[in-house]
Specification:
mainly alpha; 6 helices; 0% strand
Amino acid sequence: MLQFFGVDFLDLWRGQLSLRRINVLVGSLLNQPGRSALAAAVDESAVWSDSEHLLAQVSDALELSNWLFYQANSSEDAEAPPAPTPMRRPGQEDVEPVQPTYASTDEVVDFFTRMNSL
């Protein structure tokens, strides 16, 4: 508190600082931009800034987009690469990626045939 706000905790015992004021100061410390050690101790995801979280989302979306493009434009007999796994973020538990299932060619043709006959 002394480093950020110039407030000494001993002022609480001296009667110059209230518990409400300490609560407000701690709350504002948690909302400070950057890598606050207090925020990281309370919430592990605070280790990364908002910009880093957004960059991870962009990276995941780009990898998925490239993978889907490759899947759509490769021949059926080519070996498909595994689906990309999302970048691990602080404070997030590891989750197994879900393998997508695709409709067969006959199912797609049947779907469009039924849509065309409506």
